Amino acid sequence: MDTRPIVEHLKRVEQMLRRKVEDLKKPVAEAEEDLRNVIGTIAVYERNPHLLERRLLDAAADAVVVGLVDKKPVLSLRGMTHAQAVVAIAKHNGGVLKAQEAKELMIQSGVMRATKNSTHMVHNAIINSGRFDRIGRGEFRLKTPASSNGGGSVTLALPKPANGAGDSGLFTSKSPLQ
After folding, report:
1. How many CB atoms lie within 10 A of CB 132?
2. What distance lies between CA 81 and its chain's CA centroid?
């Protein structure tokens, strides 16, 4: 019986497996190198804590911050809904909101991502909140004066009932069969 074809096939499998092992070793080696770098950085900052404080101050100075909300960085918007974020931004700006500035703040804070639809989402949040009057192109004013306490509580307008009660807008409600 000729075993050469079987042996040749097994050698090809061996080569394939060796390549696979080498390919799998690369991410592990990179992760180990990253781990060594992090451990080294921790050791440097543990020996010299003043370097960390200076580094944090430098990072804060270098950060691009478009605005502040309630005297906190833009990150204070994180976790808010779009409607809550536009109201908070308007309160910070004395009741006036520019849609493009609000969009940039919301993107930087992580409330929304930068997409083609970002501007529309901001405008929808402004309109659907029911708390703004349009004063110019892309500019809105809070209907209620901005509170000076900075409490951050937001009252959202509830949607109108679908049965037609309270319809006073441009669009009238339709039954699902129309």
Report:
1. 22
2. 11
Both tokens assigned to 138? 């892309």
Distance CA 75, CA 111 (A): 9
DSSP for 31-85, please give it. HHHHHHHHHHHHHHHHH-HHHHHHHHHHHHHHS-----BTTB-GGGGTT--HHHH
User: Which pLDDT tens digit goes with each residue over 19-65?
Assistant: 999 999 988 899 899 899 889 888 888 888 777 666 665 555 444 44
R_g (Cα) of the chain, nearest Å: 29
C-alpha to C-alpha distance for 89 and 126, rounded to whole angstroms: 11
Amino acid at 167: D
DSSP 132: E
3-state helix, strand, coil in the chain (%, to 5): 55, 10, 40
Q: What would the pLDDT profile of 139-172 be if each residue is shown by its tens digit? A: 999 986 544 444 444 444 444 445 444 444 444 5
